[in-house]
Structures
1.
Amino acid sequence: MEIFRSYGFDKTLFLATLILMVIGLIMVYSSSGILASEKYQDSFHFFVNQIVVAGIGLALIFFMLPIRKQFYKNFYFIYGLLFLSFFLLVLCLLMPALAKTNRWVQFFSLRFQPSELAKISLILFFAHYFDRKKEKINEFQALLFPLTVLLIFILLIIKEPDYGTALLIFLICSIMLFIGGVKFKYFICLGIFSSALFAFYLFQASYRLDRIIAFLSPTKDPQGTGFQIIQSKLAVGSGGLLGVSIGESTQKLFFLPCTHTDYIYAIVGEELGLIGTLTVLFLFLIFLWRGLVIARNAPNFFSQIAAAGITLAIFSQAMLNISIVLGLGPPTGIPLPLISYGRSSLLCSLFGIGILLNISQRKKNIIRKK
Amino acid sequence: MKNDKIYEDLFLVQKRAKRIFILVGLLFIFLILNFWKIQILDHEKYWERSEANRMREILLPFQRGLITDRNGTILANNKSSFRVSLIRENCEDYEKSCRKIARLLGIEEEVLKERIKKYESLPLFKPIVVKENLTNEEVAMIKARKLELPELIIQTEPKRFYPFGSIAAHVIGYLQEISPEELEDGIHPERRLGDLVGKTGIEKEYEAGLVGVDGQLVEVVDSLGRSKGEIARLESRRGRDLTLALDFDLQKKAEELLEGREGAIVVLDAKTGELLALTSYPNFDPNSFINRFTSEEWLDLVNSPEFPLENRAIRGLYAPGSVFKLTMALGALDLGIVTDQTTYFCGGTIRIYGRPFSCWLEQGHGKVNLYDGIRHSCNIYIYQLGKEMGIEEIARYARMLGFGEKTGIDLPGEKDGLMPDPKWKREFRNEPWHPGETILVSIGQGPIMVTPIQVAAHTALIANRGSGISPHLYKSYSQAGNKKMSSPHFSKNYTVKIDQANFEKVIQGMWEAVNKEGTGRAAKVSGYDICGKTGSTQTISTKKLEEMTEEEEEEVKTHSWFTGFAPREDPKIIVTILVEYGGMGGETAAPLARQIFDLYRKKYDRQKSS
């Protein structure tokens, strides 16, 4: 029933991933060099860190590719991963705060952001759960369990606090529910419930509200939180068609914060121009297209929703980040997958892509040939 | 049937995936249109703005928190000063401008270049401080050459200032530029190359609370560097103000008393362990260090044979001498070796283990009981106790009473001291313990080492009849300030397991030493119940002393100790004094203590004693 073609994985998707990563590495160096030399007296600091993780991630993918057994479908693997994420998230809150937040766990000098792992483990968990309960998917009792798990994770991440990632995880899981076949009426209930919850948290910390206000009218307060939005658009706009060429950005000279993480795309816009921004955009579109094709051709229900989930998670995170850079969404501080500096994010994205590529080697020829 | 089900499932996923794809398509078109608008249609507008936006960021340095004494006297504050910095990016010809600037500022060109070299790793547009504390004339001179030397900018910064100069200098410490090692260590995570940080004393210990957060001013400048208005301004945030337990009057008095000598004075609140005064002499003026350049004055101080930078109160290691007799008496009473009525005969010398040991009074003290032993500081009496107790017990009581380990005072660099025992000797000198050494240690001589702060804490333990305190300088942080700062925690009072009655007996001896013509009589303040103990410690070994002629022996002066407390019942104040080479404790240290007790009584304890 299932054909496994070793190394017959989706080359287009892999190529798109590679190109995005290379663009990312170049841009990380270009946008972080000055900060790194000031902070660490070494302009390659961030670049080297990123390239090491990229190497580890690729090695992980090639390790996962020839595995014939669908280990990521295994009950113990999925629940183990889920529990590990949960454990690390709790550990986060117990660790001493870094930059006033508890987003990282630190072992010696290695730092890890468990919310990245939480994303991928939740996708696998949802896929696995729906696969088992697909007949009863529209029954409230059946939905209660995954929704509770989701709620616990989101609350833990909000507590860190990392509002952006919490929102993203909520979005990804909603997409999972949608492709899993949950009826629209449940989405309405979920929508009302979660908006109430988010509104509550929004008003708990004044900076979150400030960001929303800044997003709605950035010119009103150009010196405060509106600053980022204006500077980001200024960076993108001054790039023009061809950009000011690599390394020439003026915005990254501390006018725009987080240029190698959350706002890296603005520097892409400034240094590489419209050509650069659209190239990245189309690469993500290719990623989405191939990802959904893999999902369509996947041999079983689990593989289908897992593949679709991973693809959509990476893609929607990219879209969210790009919208923020363009001033179309409130600044929430999430990285651009595969491109932004962030070791946990890159490693977890590549892990997800590894699973995606493993799925792409599996075909269900009987049905397709009919 | 089963197959049908699968068909249906797959169909559902495909249908929903298709919907998502359509949604994404629309989003995509929207995004592309947006990029088109911003990057192509509005490009001109943004480009111009970005070009005009040659922004310049100016650091708004924070103000360090004030340091005050317990009554609000300001011991450390900030005053604004001018400094001039060089922006390398703006230099037309680096060599030429270095020459010009060196001449203008009156610094040597080599010094200037070396200075700049230190900051090579900074980006070119970052200003490097080349001279600080400019006079008004210098500021005017530099401003007048603005067109000629666009690479120089003048900035103001709050500069640390200690209004009373050297008073409490050892407590407060001073600031200096952060060293590359400290930067690497990451103890000051938010500080950068060129910042000033606390190097010693309170400035170092409470650095985290005293520092604020730098602000930033971003302004638009045109191609000539003229400001076109502010874009963003982030005000700096001030550090927390810190109130110390010190009492300025007592501190000042203590420094005056030590003038011209080398030594230390520690004044403690007997109940809380708060330090009312802590001095070390000679001292220094911390104001002269707060700059980014190594001054000759600094080198002079570092290399001075009198070590004015050393805080003798917490880092000076001295033999305790007769002060140690208190420990011996408590130990012997607790072990039941003696009672307060046990007497020994002091004839001036005694042979123990076949070796003669002498009392400081050549003709001897005659029949001596415990009270006399402490009052007259009779060596012969204590030798007997030492012989009976043995070194292990002596070491156990000494450690129990606070010797041989840090008191935990909130100042960096406190020393442990040393309570020797056979184990230590085997480990560090690889020699067996001689019984004769026990006799020497029992009168506080030999390898035993203590710091004045340990002696003060030890005295507090006796004054409180067995309940100890942790000496500390911290009193409170100001409430204002954005940072959350938790107060440091000082271990609660602890008690030692020695019978209260034994403390009373030793205290009786200490009272007699001051009030009944004992060795500490010079500390007596009439109408104030002071208890105390003097000490005079040999500064060279007995062996050497024996080789000397009598005249030479006279020349060798001993370190002079006094430690005591008052009033006898309900003790309030502990005073510990050490004067290096001060001679007999009763002659030098005790009269100084009298003046401290006197001042304290006048200021705080008047109603009780009158």
2.
Amino acid sequence: MFPYLSLILWLPALGALALLATPREQHQTARSIALAVSLLTFVISLALPLRFNAADPSMQFVEQVAWIPQWGISYHLGLDGLSLWLVVLTTFLIPIALFATWNSIHAQVRYFQILMLLLETAMIGVFIALDTILFYLFWEFTLIPMAFMIGIWGSGNRIYAARKFFLYTFAGSVLMLMGIIGLSFLHRDATGAELTSFSLTQIMGDIRTGAFALEFGMEQLLFGLFFIAFAIKVPMWPFHTWLPDAHVQAPTAGSVILAGVLLKLGTYGLIRFNLSLFPNASEWAAPAIGILAVIGIIYGAWIAFAQTDMKKLVAYSSVSHMGFIVLGIFALNEIGITGAVLQMVNHGLSTGALFLIVGYIYERRHTREMSEFGGLWTVMPIYGGLALVMVLSSVGLPGLNGFIGEFAIMQGAFISPALGWGYVAVSVIGVVLAAVYLLRMYRETFMGEVNKPENAELKDLSGGEIGMMVALLVPIVVIGLFPTLFFAPMQASISEVAQAFRSVVAEGQ
Amino acid sequence: MSFLLTDIPRILPEILLLVLALLILGSDVFERWAADEQAALERHRASASLAALGLGMIFAITLLQSGYLYTVPDTADSNYFTNLLRNLQSGIPRGSNVPLPVMDMFATDHLTIIGRLLFTGAAFLIVLLTYDNPPLRNPGEFYSLLVLSTLGMCLMAGATELIMLFLAIELTSIPLYVLAGYFRNDRQSVEAGMKYFLYGAFSSALLLYGMSFVYGYASSTAVAADLTALPTSVITSFDTLRELIAQAGEPAPILLIGMLFMIAGIGYKIAIVPFHGWSPDVYQGAPTTMTAFISTASKAAGFFLLLRVLDTVFPNVVGNPIPVFDEFGGWTGMLALLAALTLIIANLAALPQTNAKRLLAYSGIAHAGFLLMGVIAQAAPFSTDRLNGVVALLYYLVVYAVMNIGAFGVIAIVAQDTGSDEITALNGLAQRNLGLAALFTVFVFALAGIPPLAGFFAKFYIMLAVWQANAIWLVVIALISTIPALYYYLRLLRAVFMMPPDISTPMPAPRWMMASLVVSAVLVLVLGLFPAPLLDVLEQVQVQVIAGR
């Protein structure tokens, strides 16, 4: 079979190598090569949903090669309904982010493009790795390009932000590494195998068949190790403090990728590892995690409301929105998880778009303070119109993408025995608050009179900028109007996760 | 056992190293000795290139001899080349057939061969690093001392007898004392040499003291023991000592005290807490290239020795690193404590450092903590797990050598240009020489253990091995200690990438230094991404006890 996954995974890295060979001063060449490579990757990745067999819940496009046989580590890739859209989201957002840097990154252009392409490889790798060590490698490797992006091309307090980002996530992943080692040794002891196995599918399979049952205390411990790593990445309240710093200092393209894809690594990990490997502990922890998620929803929204800096506002809105996704995951049923996965894609699209919108105005005025603006609609009508759609998508207006995801999540949480209506009742406040703070931002910047003379001369969006917005708008509308297109391929895999979950939990009781 | 003519190919690398050292020393006489710069440069280049060529050839011969690349099959036709290779490979272990030590004092097993490759390889990279230095005073002496020290390390890796062990350590250390203080007009260098010498002498005394206890204990029980059952008639040989200790039954306190002193003596050489006091000062003061040599090859040789001594002489006091009071003990228990202390103290002490070499010195101490964990894995109940521990330790030593040589090499280039080895000297390196900055990033991330570089896998294997020995608490400490470690490594990278340079002229990177760094960086990448071939080689190591216990 044609190795689609390897191709998509390594093409950006090869592009980064090719960029190394381009002359240092030819910025335009570097930009074109990077964009071409990422677009090519996107086009190839479109083959995944087309060739994906929606009825098959197991891993597809599987590639497995022994890598370090001495320790039972293999190069093992695969894709299922859970990761399908996340991979496509990644390959979709990278060209947009690269295009967004066309006129905003002027220093060391080539290296920015190289880091971006390396980051793409690492992020795709996280979504398709089926070996825990391979997963960990890609997981850790996402840190380096992002930290450099913040630290070199960021603004103001960039070094502090980069270091905080790096150390926070690294601390989390160290715990995860401990979990990975422990898991494999317990698996080896339980199955009596000669070699340790780091294969996620094998360990997961043995858990589902009951060949590998963890003691409850140990399960809780391992669950905790993985959970902290993922919770930092999501980020869940109270592990979120790195996020506003990182977002505010990062360049626009970095923010788009950070919010669009990097945060999804955490929620993806929660489903792939915590839910699938530790069902009993998941059920045990679900109410507590639900409470953390709800606190995150309300807290993120509350703080976002108080911001005067637009980028900070969008950053805190991410904390709130990611809370919804975690809530959906820990509803522990099909509908909740499906909603969560769709909402991951939605959040990537709408928040990515919002960061671009903030980035456009920042490029023109070099400030993001809301008080500096007002009446932009009259000066920049196209910009105003597109921004309105994106804001509404993030608010969750029916007919656009955000609504579908949030609705499914709340439905899932409502019928979930672990959570229930109380969680939904509180989190609805978060939805209302989202409308409040986002529309307030919109009102203060776009509505009213042009009250600053500097703003009267601002140019409306260029063709390229409109192009990027429209590119984001298409999936936003399509998901909003035809959600089944996106639900269908996920369904089989997620049902299997949920069913296996129920059977293991039922066996344990 | 007496020396046989057929033993010569078995110790060929050592013989060649000795010849090389004398050759370098002797050939210097034929150079033009004059006070002008040109003559000094010519002398320096002549000695350096001779040392580099010689070490490279010895490395190649050892590699050929090891049979890791190609072993002549018994059925091969005899011709000039196969005969040559066959003779060369006649003394090396094949399969489970490991030849007895030469004269009962020097084993030529896989452990020794891997040691030879590691030490000559490291010395080769170091010599390349020194090639473009400003000319040294008396380069012949400098390089022959370096080669002699390498010879001592090879002997340390293979020593199976107490006297041999002591001579090997001294042969390694004494040249290094001189090399550390080689810049006679630099106060710091002289201080480093002196400090290294005093500490080294003290640690040798401790080691000798411990050896005398162990020997005394063994030889006094030998009277009662069945002498005919002993493996050799040399009482100081490791095998005999083990037999005697085993025959004496429950180990007496005096033996344990002797063992403790021996561990302490070797502990100075490998710079673990609390025997690490000398290393920051010495590392900071010594010429940077020599710091690289001391911190990698010399430390690695110490670990080879430690592993062999503990595993072949004291297998019945291996003990247990599990933190339950009545189980905890033996040398694994003691080393586990030392490893935990080393990891914690070294990583914390590195945080406030402002001198890059000093920071790397503390990082080296922390790495010694990780390396100790490989020795602790010998407490594992299954022999495959114990072997995994040895493999993990050796893999770590190889990786640590290349990444540390690389990191110090970059500092050496920067110091040559800026005249300073403070962290601030690295400011804006990315703008002054991006290639160098990229290499430095590779080394620093490898030291920090960021995947997919080899440094990560080294730590990972060690932790797997220690987990198998049930010392999970140590794994937890080791993992958590990597977080402060990352913090101080990031300080180096912050200076390189995010600080503005003092002067913006490009930084020259001398050709041969860069060659050495590129080789190291490629190794760091390749060993990380494709560790399987190296692991296959390392798995052939059969430390006696692992096979026999």
